[in-house]
User: Which sequence fits this backbone?
């Protein structure tokens, strides 16, 4: 409009009628457009068919745009956070007549666990002559919770000590249970049902069968959120959360009490508890896990005592990238805690730098990490390097193998 | 007089155009941005080692004070795994197993460099030493 107006003014002032002839239709078109166009009255409703997903699954988002004003041309795109892939991804073009509505369907697929937001719709509306443009963000913001993809586990880290609750771990002590322990002479206080009649008949005096009871254990999952390595394929924190969720589910299914300690720049925890409700609490807490940058020095004293019950099995899931988490692990071990470490390998997410010096540094860093692992092994800490492309089961079996070879057999 | 009026009109029109262009609605700007992918994160631990290798090229002091302790720890652990002890090794045995250059660097009691500003160890010399350690 400004251009047309300027052309007319210049044409009139400069005595150039051709400018006026060119500019007048433009001005007329704009004037008609402005006279006819009215504010669009758009309403948008966003609906999700599932608000809870497992990583890799997708949800269908239905968006209904209704126009109660004059006809408009629309560009519409769905806003979302970075870890949600939406198909179609770019803006859609559509023309919406007066009193009409249009339904759009998007497929949303989170590529990582977490609580993601989808919506609102970002809309740009134009009147049919393209004279005026309105931008708006309409519709609600929905939360899509994507739960970590868990693996099936056949092995779990066998705890060194068990707790006197009914569970699935065979305790070393003797009592009422199913697993055979020993046959011994009868002593006052033994129950009749314990009498081993075959041995009694053979020896001519009363003998009883001892059994190992099945007990539960306390398990503390220690998630290191001090530092991570990340590239386009994901990061160590993603894998650590998947491993922690997998182990939490497996231990709770075996009637263990499970606690979660998110040990990083900020400290979060869940006290030990049994059951399905605890599983949901743990998974929800894991979804909120993030790397919080901090210079604060944290030691074992930072963890409330009630989170580390005596005799609990502590499983640290860590990339071993921060001195504070390494210090915590060695501190816990020197205090006699039953500790195992699942090292989420950062090398998969890290490439050497471009120069020859960077490549040498990468080689040195790898050797340094191997030396650290050897130092932890020497302290009696089972450290297993787990790459998320491998089965977690194999890693846990590696932990058990180390504990067996180190003489860390379970006892009650 | 007419010339002045024409110039004034043209200037006015140009001003109007400039003002209108600056006040154009968001139509010229993209109304929607694709969500950006998260940035890659390199571990601080690795960055620190890269920095160490870099300064060790330039300074004998850095080699002795920072690089050497790391190499000593790695060598001691590697030798312990095969039943040897770094701190109990003779010069001949150490040089034979680790090579003269690496042994000179990690041997117990290595003196503080006389010229602390002297040259360090270039990466091309450090690489074969690390190769020796990997072979242990």
Assistant:
């Amino acid at each position: 409009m400004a251009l047309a107006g300027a052309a007319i003014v210049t044409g009139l002032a400069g005595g150039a009628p051709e400018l006026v002839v060119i500019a007048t239709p433009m001005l007329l078109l704009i004037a008609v457009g402005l006279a006819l166009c009215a504010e669009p009255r758009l309403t948008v409703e966003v609906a999700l068919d599932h608000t809870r997903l497992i990583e890799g699954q997708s949800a269908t988002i239905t968006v209904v745009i209704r126009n109660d004003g004059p006809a408009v041309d629309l560009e519409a795109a769905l806003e979302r956070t970075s870890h949600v892939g939406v198909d179609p991804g770019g803006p859609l073009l559509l023309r919406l007549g007066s009193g009409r509505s249009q339904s759009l369907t998007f497929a949303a697929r989170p590529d990582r666990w977490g609580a993601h937001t989808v919506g609102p719709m970002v809309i740009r509306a134009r009147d049919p002559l393209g004279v005026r443009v309105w931008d708006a963000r309409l519709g609600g913001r929905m939360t899509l919770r994507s739960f970590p993809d868990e693996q099936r586990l056949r092995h779990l880290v066998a705890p060194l000590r068990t707790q006197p609750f009914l569970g699935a771990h065979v305790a070393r002590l003797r009592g009422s249970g199913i697993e055979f322990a020993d046959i011994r002479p009868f002593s006052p206080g033994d129950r009749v049902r314990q009498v081993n009649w075959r041995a009694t008949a053979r020896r001519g005096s009363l003998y009883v069968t001892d059994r190992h009871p099945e007990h539960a254990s306390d398990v503390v999952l220690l998630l290191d959120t001090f530092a991570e390595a990340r590239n386009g394929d994901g990061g160590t924190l993603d894998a650590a959360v998947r491993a922690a969720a997998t182990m939490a589910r497996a231990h709770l299914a075996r009637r263990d009490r499970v606690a979660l300690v998110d040990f990083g720049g900020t400290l979060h925890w869940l006290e030990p508890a049994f059951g399905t409700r605890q599983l949901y609490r743990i998974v929800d807490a894991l979804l909120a896990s993030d790397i919080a940058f901090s210079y604060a020095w944290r030691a074992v004293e930072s963890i409330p005592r009630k989170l580390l019950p005596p005799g609990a099995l502590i499983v640290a899931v860590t990339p071993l990238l921060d001195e504070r988490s390494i210090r915590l692990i060695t501190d816990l071990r020197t205090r006699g805690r039953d500790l195992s470490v699942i090292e989420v390998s950062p090398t998969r997410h890290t490439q050497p730098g471009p120069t020859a010096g960077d490549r040498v540094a990468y080689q040195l860093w790898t050797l340094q990490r191997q030396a650290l692992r050897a130092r932890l092994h020497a302290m009696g800490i089972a450290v297993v390097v787990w790459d998320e492309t491998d089965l977690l089961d194999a890693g846990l079996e590696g932990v058990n193998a180390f504990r067996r070879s180190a003489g860390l057999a379970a006892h009650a | 007089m007419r010339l002045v009026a024409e110039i004034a009109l043209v200037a006015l029109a140009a001003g109007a155009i400039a003002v209108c262009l600056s006040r154009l609605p968001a139509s010229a700007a993209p109304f929607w941005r694709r969500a950006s992918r998260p940035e890659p994160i390199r571990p601080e631990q690795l960055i620190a080692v890269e920095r160490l290798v870099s300064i060790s090229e330039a300074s004998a002091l850095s080699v002795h004070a920072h690089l050497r302790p790391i190499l000593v720890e790695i060598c001691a652990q590697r030798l312990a795994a095969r039943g040897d002890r770094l701190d109990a090794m003779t010069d001949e045995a150490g040089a034979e197993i680790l090579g003269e250059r690496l042994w000179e660097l990690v041997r117990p009691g290595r003196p503080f460099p006389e010229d602390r500003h002297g040259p360090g160890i270039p990466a091309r010399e450090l690489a074969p030493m690390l190769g020796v350690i990997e072979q242990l």
